Amino acid sequence: MAESKYGKYIVTELKKNIKIPSFRPGEVLEPAKPGVKRRMNHVIWMDSEVVPGSFYSECVWFFPDRDLTPEELQKVSKGGGPEAHTHPFEEVLTFFGTNFDDPHDLCGEVELWLEDEKFILTKSFLAYIPAGMKHCPLRIHRIDKPMFHFTLGPGQIYQGENK
Hints:
Layout: E1 40-46, E2 56-62, H1 70-75, E3 85-86, E4 91-97, E5 105-114, E6 117-123, E7 125-129, E8 135-143, E9 147-153, E10 161-162
Antiparallel strand pairs: 1-2, 2-9, 3-10, 4-7, 4-9, 5-6, 5-8
């Protein structure tokens, strides 16, 4: 953001060299490129390394496989996603569909585990994860239309332990 007194609090670019914990295997975070669609497209990441004093937050678009070129589709990791883990901070996970006639429609199907309980979600949702609660795996089984994912936690750096 342009230099100003408060511009340092506005983030418009994806953080470079994000260290992804081992419970998110195979995930590569790179900036979105205009005209290039991927199944998982990170948009923004904030933590205390990006904005000193801020907490962790992440925004991601997920696109249906049919929106990808054959070359992009070959790179898609089916069944990927975070494995079971915990954080020393609370976390909120969100997924929103893009059916503007029905904003509750997730436009797909997401599997989320909280401790040892499995949830299959087909409606837009917020999930509160208390500090120390085992959560995930998280699997996206179906994407009919683009879905937006947002997560945040009051930890200053994204960290956790495999479970």
